[in-house]
Specification:
Order of helices and strands of chain A: HHHHH
Shape of chain B: globular
Distance between the termini of chain A: 29 Å
Mean pLDDT of chain A: 85
Low-confidence stretches of chain A: none
Number of domains of chain A: 1
Oligomer: heterodimer
Largest sheet of chain B: none
Distance between the termini of chain B: 17 Å
Number of helices of chain A: 5
Number of strands of chain A: 0
Number of strands of chain B: 0
Structural class of chain A: mainly alpha
Low-confidence stretches of chain B: 135-139
Number of helices of chain B: 7
Helix content of chain B: 55-70%
Shape of chain A: globular
Order of helices and strands of chain B: HHHHHHH
Largest sheet of chain A: none
Radius of gyration of chain A: 18 Å
Largest interface: A-B, 53 and 56 residues
């Protein structure tokens, strides 16, 4: 009975830590993608303004800084997760779940055309990453 | 620059994004598992972990990844870059099998096949479906031009 409760508590703790990594990571990646889309092709910017101009264009974007903040939170959540769980659990779980949340967020917030081909690819990669970990 | 057909350099950037993440994660895992258990009530000890060699190597790889990832996002959709770069997982599994002689189960082979097919699916479509800020030609116009050829 007690071992069952403890196992359930440790399951919810693991799920909570992985969910934190997934949500913060997705928020960071969508904000960063929005920033990069809003400034355009970096190769074109570098050709016009040099490497310094390209770096300046990136680091002065508020969306990018928001993305960096959430990515930093995701990074430290990942470190915390790796300290408590195996990479073979955290890596695939976070990677495959982030793929699904990112696909939904990209369609909703970045207005990307996520057609059947992209959904198929996202699901195949998501399940493939899960299988690869077992 | 056409945003639908990727150049050789753009494929190289996607390849680096793929490989640097699993290698960086492996370095972070090695560094973190060698440290004593860190409590959530002492978050500052996580900052100290950053200066250990394996964590530092992991961070260096992830910085390289981030620079390449940002470049990729400037000419491709997030929903294109994510699956396309998942090939790194396959690369690490094959490296472990052929170089380290690790055993790969049927389930893992199935995972490798699924990821490869998924990448092929997304790579066959357009890299970008939204207009870029400094794009001279919008993707829809580019489609129309290519169709007219």
């Amino acid at each position: 009975m007690i071992s069952g409760v403890l196992a359930q508590a440790s399951f919810w703790k693991a799920a909570g830590i992985i969910a934190t990594v997934v949500v913060t990571s997705s928020t960071g990646e969508v904000l960063t993608a929005a920033a990069m889309k809003s400034m355009g092709d970096l190769d074109d910017i570098r050709a016009k303004s040099g490497l310094g101009g390209a770096i300046k264009a990136v680091v002065t974007s508020p969306l990018f800084m928001g993305g960096i903040f959430f990515m930093a939170v995701a990074f430290f959540s990942l470190l915390f997760a790796l300290n408590h769980m195996n990479l073979s659990l955290v890596g695939p779980a976070a990677a495959s779940l982030t793929l699904v949340t990112n696909t939904v967020a990209a369609q909703l917030f970045l207005h990307e055309k996520v057609d059947r081909r992209r959904w198929t690819a996202a699901v195949l990669v998501c399940v493939g990453v899960y299988f690869l970990a077992h | 620059m056409a945003h639908h057909r990727l150049t050789f350099n753009q494929y190289l950037i996607l390849a680096f994004v793929s490989v640097s993440v699993p290698l960086g994660d492996a370095a972070l895992s090695r560094g973190m598992t060698s440290l004593p258990s860190i409590s959530i009530s002492h978050p500052l000890t996580l900052i100290g972990a950053v200066f250990t060699p394996w964590i530092a190597l992991g961070i260096a790889l992830l910085i390289g990844y981030f620079a390449s990832y940002l470049t990729a996002l400037s000419w491709a959709d997030l929903t294109f870059v994510m699956p396309a770069t998942a090939l790194g997982n396959v690369f690490v599994a094959l490296l472990a099998h052929y170089w380290l002689h690790e055993n790969i189960s049927y389930m893992r082979w199935m995972g490798i096949v699924m990821i490869t097919v998924g990448v092929a699916f997304v790579a066959h479509g357009p890299a970008n479906t939204t207009p870029l800020a400094n794009a001279v030609i919008a993707p829809e116009e580019l489609d129309a031009k290519e169709a007219g050829r």
